[in-house]
Design goal:
The chain has helices at residues 2-19, 36-46, 51-61, 69-77, 82-94; strands at 123-130, 137-142, 145-151, 177-185, 188-203, 216-223, 235-236, 242-246, 251-261, 271-280. It has 281 residues and is α+β, with helices and mostly antiparallel strands. Strands 2, 3, 5, 6, 7 and 8 form a six-stranded mixed β-sheet that branches. A four-stranded mixed β-sheet has the order 4-1-9-10, with no helix packed on it.
């Protein structure tokens, strides 16, 4: 009888321990918006990348967590483009676990499913900027659309007697080669153009009337990758471009060399331009 009582007590203790395990609180599960893949998309949006680049990187990521309607509204409000949201939903469905398949009978060789082919093979354009002098801004356009830019086009004038913030440079002096863009494109010929700016601060001391405080203003000089018909003031050189003929699976590497010619013997400011060279990998 004592032995049976001990068995009963031990069994009861096990049952109590099993029933005392607290269920997992659903509220403690990680939100889809905190997933590193979603965070990466928001970082690209905040960085000002174009919808084409964001869509391409989402395709490379390959899968996304399940996004609720509330999650999609939040991402839309944060600036994620509609085509990027659609691709995230498609990859979310593609990443869903497939239904369980019964094991194949013994002695039957396994069947290897064909690898799905991605429709529409693409090529790649890579743009490398060779910078022999310091710049404050660059931009890269493909077929007239700016797909990459870095730095800032500084504009404006100070209040009388005040100074402006000095423009920051792009990269370090020793970094003379910059990979500015790498993007997938449809096969065929594409126009690639690189622009840049060198910005400094001047003042109106040469034109200021006696007894008045000087004012400082930004001066932009360089070349634009697109026609300079926007609101960015400056003295821009002639826009140039080069054609990249890309076939499926190929990479067209464009090396854009920034050039600066000294002013003439009569004085003046430097003349800026861009020259190009292409290779196919």
């Amino acid at each position: 009888m004592k032995l049976n009582a001990r068995i009963f007590i031990a069994t009861a203790a096990v049952l109590i321990a099993m029933t005392s395990v607290a269920p997992v609180d659903a509220g403690e599960q990680k939100s889809a918006l905190e997933d590193s893949r979603v965070v990466e998309v928001l970082a690209m949006v905040d960085g000002g990348l174009s919808s084409k680049i964001i869509w391409a990187k989402i395709h490379d990521i390959g899968s996304f967590p399940e996004l609720s309607g509330t999650d999609l509204v939040y991402l839309k409000e944060r600036g994620v483009p509609d085509n990027a949201l659609v691709r995230m939903i498609e990859l979310e469905q593609a990443a869903a676990p497939a239904p369980a398949v019964p094991a194949a009978p013994a002695m039957v060789p396994p069947v290897t499913a064909p690898v799905p082919q991605i429709p529409g093979d693409t090529g790649t354009i890579r743009v490398v900027i060779k910078r022999p002098f310091m710049i404050t801004y660059y931009e890269v356009a493909v077929d007239g659309e700016i797909l990459a830019q870095h730095g800032k086009l500084w504009e404006g004038m100070s209040e009388p007697g005040h100074i402006l913030k000095r423009p920051s440079k792009v990269g370090k002096r020793k970094d003379t080669m910059i990979t500015a863009l790498e993007t997938d494109v449809t096969p065929g010929s594409h126009d690639v153009a690189v622009g840049f700016a060198v910005t400094w601060v001047e003042d109106d001391s040469d034109h200021n009337e006696f007894g008045k405080y000087n004012q400082e203003f930004y001066v932009n000089r360089g070349v634009r990758a697109v026609a300079a018909d926007d609101d960015h003031e400056g003295e821009w050189g002639t826009k140039t471009a080069i054609a990249c003929d890309v076939q499926p699976g190929q990479t067209c590497v464009v090396t854009a060399t920034l050039e600066k010619r000294a002013p003439t013997g009569l004085g003046g400011l430097p003349i800026y331009s861009v020259s190009y060279q292409t290779t196919i990998d």
